[in-house]
């Protein structure tokens, strides 16, 4: 398949089901709104994700996950779901179903990381149904080490006047392939996806986003900011698709990647598909090095070269980091990025 | 460009004028070794060219159809006649060209343009070039402009060295088809430091129903030379499908500059599967100006390979997809050397159920540091039966680059129409003015007669209602 060819992936074998034993839910609302999935329940089927084979593998082997069901509930604290893959739990195959109905609001944080140098494998699927007048903010943090595989397929349905916001931070040092597909199924739905990725070492990132506008007056936005260094490879594939019946909709996507040294490979395919005339769509992709004029200015103000570079990478990421709801998470993400910047 | 031709308003009717289908010789339908041998024999070609044709046919038979892009299932190659020799040899005076063929080119304005603003003209009718002429002063400077068959005899070594080296037959199925059945086309050679300041033009006319046109254009610019080459294409409409699978290879040497302008205005039964490629050495420049109208299906992605330091490619393209059309066009640029630059600017208009698809590739190879590229695609949709898609692929293997891509899709803004109508314009005139303003950056780069043609085409296409 093309996408694997682009980041030079050969055959990957998927592990079979093993039990995942760590406790991973931290929420004051656990009992009210959330059920832990341990067996193969009736799941929302998804048509598309990182890869069909991976979706089938997830359905057959899942070993963790939650079902969140909100009905006219406004949560004032985030639900935190944290997976620390470690020596005892190196394989995570999680499935999450999130339903937000009748004017509900919630913030859900998924925090994935690896402990030590284990060889971790993650294959996740998350479905989101956000119905009329509801809103949900979903934050996904991926911090997998260089020996890990991270696959994560996300599929969401945005209903009338609903709002879904994704913020993803991907600092994976191994292989990370993620897919976020959103269907705006009823009028005036809003979906926003903000992402930071930082690809270093020999990491390979393949990020796929799709906004399927099926109804009128929809709004969608994809805002991706990346930084790459060492021998990393990355593919960005973003698609805005205005289907028939999506008149008066607006969509935009942009990706900006900072290339910090030689020997990288950065691919981008920002597609814009349109079956409706009365829409506004635009996409932009750009890439380049840190601006030398800005570097010179900062160094003339007393910054060292390394500090000036870090400051400029940070300033590129900051608007998205600031959108994270939790101070501790903001700090730790920034710390991870700055520590990794060995420029 | 000085001394531009003025061409009065044209009617679409001239493109659809059919001549009686007469020919001196034609091959059978389909593709077999015998047909290929037959074509080669008709042309009295050297053995290496026959071998090349047969090898290409073998590649064609093994290659699959593209799995992406427009539907090609209605294209039945077995029913296409690949070689039709018109009832004339090549002439260098219009007076010697048979009346009906001459009338066709006269109605297209070719002889008049030649008199007024061109340094040389080639005119192809079906499979063979029927007229070729070049100004005496250019001949004295060593410029060669002739049909490719003559070049194969007179300049065999040069042709052999360059022929299908940029677009090898195994590139894709229709490149292999072209390699097997190519016929006609132009050969241009501009010596070192010679500047051809008045354009050369080749016009390709396909008159026969159910036929294919497979012309090969080979242009070689030596160091420090310059040329503006114009290519025009058209065909009348038939109820059976026609096929155009031409090939253009452009070699731009160090410091040379080539502008290649095209208006392809095929009829609505034409599959236009054309391949164009340029290789540009140090400090060289290739400029593409491309207009794609007509045709039922087009797949056309002119490619620039920037091989030498500081080489540059500029691409300006417009497509206009109307009812029943699927125009899948774009541009490919490979930055293969340091300090190379490229600018791609495309505009597409789709209406009445037409599909305009921009498909592009921008590749910065390892070692092409300080490459700069800017890509802009704008699409205008005139109704909601149409489709307009943009899929650019950007591949960067180098960090020291400056790359930007932007695309916008939308329709004519109601506010703009309201404003113009409040100033006394009718709704139709207001919409027409906005569309013309949209294509103006590209129209102004076309030779005048083509700019006029473009505006007329847009007028014709906009007749009826839009928006």
Structure explained in plain terms:
The complex is a heterodimer of chains A (343) and B (467). Chain A is an alpha/beta fold and 343 residues long. Chain A is built from six helices and 19 strands. In chain A, strands 2, 3, 5, 6, 8, 10, 12, 14, 16 and 18 form a ten-stranded mixed β-sheet that branches. In chain A, strands 1-4-7-9-11-13-15-17-19 form a nine-stranded mixed β-sheet, covered by helices on one side. In chain A, helix 4 (292-300) packs across helix 5 (305-321) and helix 5 runs antiparallel to helix 6. Chain B has 467 residues and is of the alpha/beta class. Chain B contains eleven helices and 25 strands. In chain B, the strands form three sheets. In chain B, strands 4-3-7-10-13-15-18-21-23-25 form a ten-stranded mixed β-sheet. Chain B has a six-stranded parallel β-barrel with strand order 14-16-19-22-20-17. In chain B, helix 9 (414-422) packs across helix 10 (427-443). At the A-B interface, strand 18 and strand 19 of A face strand 24 and strand 25 of B. Strand 19 of chain A pairs antiparallel with strand 25 (401-410) of chain B.
Topology as H/E string of chain A? HEHEHEEEEEEEEEEEEEEEEEHHH
The Rg value of chain A, from CA coordinates, equals 20 Å
**What does the main sheet of chain B amount to?**
10 strands, mixed
Total beta strands of chain A: 19
Low-pLDDT sequence parts of chain B? 1-12
Round the mean pLDDT of chain A to the nearest integer and report it. Answer: 90
Major protein interface: A-B, 35 and 33 residues
Q: Classify the beta-strand content of chain A into a percent band.
A: 35-45%
Structural shape of chain B = globular
Total of helices of chain B:
11
Structural class estimated from helices and strands of chain B: alpha/beta
What does the main sheet of chain A amount to?
A: 10 strands, mixed
Low-confidence stretches of chain A: none
**Strand count of chain B:** 25
What oligomeric assembly is this protein in?
heterodimer
Percent of residues in β-strands of chain B: 25-35%
Order of neighbouring strands in the sheet with most strands of chain B? 4-3-7-10-13-15-18-21-23-25
Helix/strand-derived category of chain A reads alpha/beta
């Amino acid at each position: 398949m093309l996408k694997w060819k682009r980041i030079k992936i050969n055959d990957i074998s998927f592990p079979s089901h093993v039990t995942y034993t760590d406790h991973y839910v931290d929420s004051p609302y656990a009992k009210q709104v959330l059920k832990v999935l341990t067996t193969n329940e009736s799941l929302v089927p998804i048509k598309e994700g990182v890869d069909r084979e991976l979706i089938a593998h997830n359905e057959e082997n899942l070993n963790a996950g939650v079902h969140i069901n909100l009905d006219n509930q406004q949560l004032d604290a985030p639900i935190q779901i944290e997976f620390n893959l470690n020596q005892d739990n190196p394989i995570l195959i999680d499935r999450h179903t999130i339903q937000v109905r009748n004017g509900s609001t919630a913030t859900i944080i998924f925090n994935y990381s690896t402990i030590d140098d284990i060889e971790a494998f993650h294959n996740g699927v998350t479905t989101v149904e956000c119905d009329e007048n509801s809103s949900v903010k979903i934050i996904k943090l991926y911090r997998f080490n260089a020996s890990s595989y991270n696959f994560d397929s996300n599929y969401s349905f945005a209903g009338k006047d609903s709002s879904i916001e994704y913020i993803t931070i991907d600092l994976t040092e191994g292989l990370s392939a993620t897919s976020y597909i959103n269907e705006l199924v009823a009028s005036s739905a809003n979906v926003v996806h903000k992402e930071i990725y930082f690809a270093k070492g020999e990491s390979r990132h393949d990020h796929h986003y799709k906004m399927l506008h099926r109804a009128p007056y929809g709004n969608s936005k994809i805002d991706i900011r990346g930084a790459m260094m060492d021998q990393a490879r990355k593919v960005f594939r973003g698609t805005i698709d205005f289907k028939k019946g999506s008149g008066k909709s607006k969509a935009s996507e942009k990706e900006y990647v900072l290339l910090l040294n030689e020997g990288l490979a950065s691919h981008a395919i920002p597609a814009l598909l349109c079956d409706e005339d009365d829409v506004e769509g635009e996409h932009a992709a750009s890439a380049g090095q840190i601006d030398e004029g800005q570097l010179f200015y900062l160094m003339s103000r007393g910054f060292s070269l390394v500090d000036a570079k870090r400051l400029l990478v940070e300033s590129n990421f900051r608007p998205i980091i600031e959108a994270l709801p939790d101070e501790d998470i903001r700090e730790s993400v920034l710390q991870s990025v700055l520590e990794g910047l060995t420029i | 460009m000085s001394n531009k031709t003025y061409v009065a308003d044209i009617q679409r009717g001239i493109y659809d004028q059919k001549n009686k289908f007469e020919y001196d010789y034609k091959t059978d339908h389909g593709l077999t070794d015998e047909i290929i041998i037959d074509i080669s024999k008709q042309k009295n070609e050297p053995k290496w060219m026959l071998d090349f044709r047969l090898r290409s046919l073998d590649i064609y038979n093994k290659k699959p159809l593209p799995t992406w892009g427009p539907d090609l299932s209605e294209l039945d190659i077995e029913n296409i006649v690949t070689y039709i020799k018109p009832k004339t040899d090549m002439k260098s005076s219009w007076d010697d060209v048979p009346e009906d063929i001459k009338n066709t080119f006269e109605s297209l304005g070719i002889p008049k343009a030649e008199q007024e603003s061109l340094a040389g003209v080639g005119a192809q009718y079906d499979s063979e070039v029927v007229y070729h002429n070049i100004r005496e002063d250019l001949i004295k400077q060593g410029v060669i402009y002739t049909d490719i068959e003559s070049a194969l005899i007179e300049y065999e070594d040069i042709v052999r060295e360059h022929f299908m080296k940029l677009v090898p037959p195994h590139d894709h199925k229709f490149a292999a088809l072209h390699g097997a059945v190519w016929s006609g086309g132009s050969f241009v050679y501009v010596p070192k430091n010679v500047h051809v300041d008045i354009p050369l033009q080749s016009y390709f006319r396909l008159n026969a129903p159910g036929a294919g046109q497979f012309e090969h254009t080979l242009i070689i610019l030596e160091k420090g030379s310059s040329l503006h080459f114009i290519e025009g294409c058209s065909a009348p409409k038939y109820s059976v499908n026609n096929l155009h699978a031409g090939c253009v290879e452009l070699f731009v040497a160090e410091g040379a500059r080539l502008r290649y302008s095209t208006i392809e205005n095929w009829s609505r039964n034409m599959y236009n599967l054309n391949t164009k490629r340029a290789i540009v050495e140090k400090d060289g420049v290739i400029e593409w100006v491309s207009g794609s109208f007509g045709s039922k299906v087009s797949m056309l992605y002119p490619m620039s390979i920037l091989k030498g330091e500081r080489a540059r490619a500029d691409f300006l393209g417009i497509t206009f997809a109307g009812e029943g059309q699927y125009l899948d066009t774009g541009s490919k640029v490979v930055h293969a050397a340091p300090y190379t630059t490229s600018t791609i600017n495309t505009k597409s208009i789709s209406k009445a159920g037409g599909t305009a698809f921009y498909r592009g590739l921008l590749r910065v190879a390892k070692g092409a540091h300080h490459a700069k590229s800017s890509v802009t695609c704008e699409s205008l949709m005139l109704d909601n039966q149409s489709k307009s898609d943009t899929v650019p692929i950007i591949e960067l293997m180098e960090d020291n680059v400056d790359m930007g891509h932007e695309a916008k899709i939308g329709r004519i803004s109601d506010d703009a129409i309201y404003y113009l109508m409040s100033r006394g314009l009718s709704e139709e005139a207001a919409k027409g003015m906005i569309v013309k303003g949209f294509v103006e950056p590209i129209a102004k780069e076309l030779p005048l007669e083509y700019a006029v043609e473009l505006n007329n085409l847009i007028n014709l296409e906009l007749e009826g209602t839009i928006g």
